[in-house]
Amino acid sequence: MADTGMLLNFDLGDAPLKRQVKYTGGRWRDRKHAQRSANKDRDGPLSGSNSTPLPNDRRDHKPSDDERAGDDERPTKRQRTHGDARGHSRPDTSSRSLSYMTGKLPPGSISTAPRHGTQNAKPGGVTSRLFTSNPTPKTVFEDPVEEVEPAKPSNAPLSDEAENFHALGLSRRIAQHLSAKLEMKAPTSIQKNTIPQLVKEDSDAFLQAETGSGKTLAYLLPIVQRIMALSQHEDGTSTAVQIHRDSGLFAIVLAPTRELCKQIAMVLEKVLRCAPWIVSTIVIGGESKKSEKARIRKGVNILIATPGRLADHLLNTKVLDVGTVRWLVLDEGDRLMEMGFEDELKSIVGKIREDALKESNKEGVKFDTLPQRRVTVLCSATMKMNVQKLGEISLQDAIHVTAAKADNEEGNATETNDAVFSAPSQLKQSYMIVPAKLRLVTLIALLKASFARKGSVMKAIVFISCADSVDFHFDLLRSTPAQPPSPDEMSLTTNTVADAAYITSPANPAITLLKLHGSLKQPVRTSTLASFHMSKDPCVLITTDITSRGLDVPSVDLVIEYDPAFSVDDHVHRIGRTARAGRPGKAALFIQPGCEEGYINLLNSATSAVAESYESTLQKGFLSPVTLPKIEKGSEAPILVSDRQSPNSRAEALQLHVEQRLLASEKEGKSKLLDQARQAFRSHIRAYATHVREERSCFDITQLHLGHTAKSYGLREAPGGIGGGPSRRTFKPGHNHKPSAQKHAAKSDDRDERSVDRRADHDEIGTADDDAARRMRMKMMQATNAAGEFNIG
């Protein structure tokens, strides 16, 4: 039979076949260039062309697992280059403006070449380049000048032997108790100027002093002294009449946060050990109202409260009689106004002044030694006098008391404007200009260098802008236990206190890591703060601004502002957690190159900081090998850091390790850490846009590189959904989130925690001529509960 088919003759040649690669994602122009490069490699080099492949630009193409495994066979994308004056080729930066909006990394930021000095690195794996494409800072770094002699502490107790508490008008019983039991030999400057005024006079007072100078005792001691005088003679002997807990409520102390209320109560409890017949108690949100009512019913002489809970008790607790109240103390008064407690304060002041002042109690005891009018004491470290509403609400004929003097002019406490405050003179402050990509490794290097010597730093506090970011950094820096704790071993601090990783050293092989923010339940917050107080080992507390006001934690040697404060006032309060009562301390501030460098000019009016290079911090922190914890079980082996690596190589290996941890958790279906990183990034960007209006030019979100910022969270590209509102917030399946329950929580007495968490509204409340962003935040404040969209502490 004749063959009617067609004979095909193909010459395949001797060259091996190469599979076709289809490029997806990214921009059309990048895909076109990559396809042309692949065609050139397949067809052979053209005459006069350079056949050497250039570094890949992978910012718009996310490789899959199969592509990453077969990276050796895949043709590489060609990066567009152009020559400079010397004939050298450099990456094209025409897409830099687009990268700020999309969060994609610029050319050269990611490479597929294996790193030197890392073992078990996957061939073709994506490696971050931390030291390329970083902006150049404008600040000129000068050589540090060594001080000839340390600065004299400005908030230490007075050294003059003639200055003692008895000379200020306090009884010998109190003075001896302070000296013998509390080891307080002499008062501070603010105590010296305040105690005689409040003991002898009945006028209102406005106290101004730097942090850590003893303002709490400055107003507590006169109150205790005058109440004790009802039961004692001038010589300290007891009278026939003795005050007890049912004699009446004489003083109310208001503080903005629960932690500060507990600290005031703890200080007052120590003072009242010399007068056990005087009873104090505390009422705050998050505690049982029933037990609080029972304590009030039994009787109390001094009450410490948050404004939200006290306003609730004044309305609903009939046994709370304020007719005998002589003192109303507003601690951290500026913070009370900033957190939106104006309505509660008006209600409290109006309720106290509503009834006539009682001159005796139901038992007929006359209050001769107590003030014959209601005295209001307003105190703060950075009280700006433009908060005139609070003065109009509470103060009448007030005297202005500072650490230097006391002015008795009427109304002086509401007419001074924008007083400038300084940090303690013995506090050593520095700021580091750190590019966004290097923020995480620089933070770890700073902590590692701080704990490199035993006893050099015992306790450190790291301030971060929002609660989501606190959760992520805590879970990232904690040491993963070999086995999760059983239900019987679970405690209140199981998820807030853990052993630290990355920052340990041979001198301090065990460092405790803690976290604290306003979204935690009150018992957890109390237990965590107590653990930080009582810890005898080196420890690091990662927290929001909830711990920036008034808290006195012993042995805090270092304060790190990883995210700059939302205002200069908050900055002064943050660094005031160290160098207290004459002790030395250090504070470090992280800022980014560019517009944020102008923030230093604003700080110079209140503090004095020295510029330091982040490179020197990396050199100190990564001078010794970094011990990296194991990645989750079943994933690849961790990167081994060689002794021959340089500090910069160790920093890159650490960054790669963090990124692999996040990817490994996603591959195993346990993407908790990865989800935390994405949510923390979104909350951080939203919080970045909430600086006060006067400082917003220094924190311009349009100049923030989203891609580089994402690298500081271990992400290889910026996640979306940054502009999502409250309706886009997702909830865990299986949880019942009823709108009625949320509405009830928003109206509950938990106002103090809700206001603390909404840090985004700081210094924005009460400003009439703000922009649309402020109005959006105000709507969100009214619509969401304590764990709202921003979740900012």
UniProtKB/TrEMBL annotation:
SUPFAM superfamilies: P-loop containing nucleoside triphosphate hydrolases
Domain of life of the source: Eukaryota
Catalysed reaction equations from the record: ATP + H2O = ADP + phosphate + H(+)
Domain Helicase ATP-binding: 196-401
Swiss-Prot/TrEMBL keywords: ATP-binding, Helicase, Hydrolase, Nucleotide-binding, Nucleus, Ribosome biogenesis, RNA-binding, rRNA processing
UniProt similarity note: Belongs to the DEAD box helicase family.
Name of the featured protein: ATP-dependent RNA helicase
E.C. numbers: 3.6.4.13
